[in-house]
């Protein structure tokens, strides 16, 4: 990019979400989220343990496993899902630390596609758009359908390149 060329707004705000994700202490995945209204940044958040509580890097992950019946290509199969229950997701923290009035009509930029729980919370938050980079295949189909039902613009920045200093190895 030349010195006289600006980043587009999607790249600008996604870069900020990735920078925010570097605050996470989660050894499995660093996730960052930002709340934007128009071109104004209203809040940032990342995934982690509640304030004042040891995080996963100090106390280890609290992995919960469950199974979900999915239909894929006309075939039913059970899919094992693992999640850390010590961590509050970036989207949840963003909703906890921003005001409803600021969220009305806003966009959330998040490094990773929201899980089902976060998508449900975002759907009732007043936002009108979710922009993400990395997909989350475990919940992708049902999250996309729900966002469409709610009329929330839901889009992935597939060709986006995160800032190198924000990258970590992502555990699946």
TrEMBL record:
The record, for InterPro entries, names:
APOBEC/CMP_deaminase_Zn-bd (IPR016192), CMP_dCMP_dom (IPR002125), Cytidine_deaminase-like (IPR016193), dCMP_deaminase (IPR016473), dCMP_deaminase-rel (IPR015517), Deoxycytidylate_deaminase_dom (IPR035105)
Task: Supply one GO CC term from the record.
Answer: cytoplasm
Q: Which key words are in the record?
A: Hydrolase, Metal-binding, Zinc
Query: Has keyword RNA-binding?
Result: no
GO BP, sorted A to Z:
pyrimidine nucleotide metabolic process
Q: Which residues form the CMP/dCMP-type deaminase domain?
A: 8-154
Q: Which Gene3D superfamilies match?
A: Cytidine Deaminase, domain 2
Task: List cofactor names only.
Answer: Zn(2+)
Q: Which residues make up the binding site for Zn(2+)?
A: 89, 115, 118
Where is the catalytic site? Answer: 91
From the Swiss-Prot or TrEMBL record, give the protein name. Answer: CMP deaminase
- Where does this protein come from, organism-wise? Paenibacillus glucanolyticus
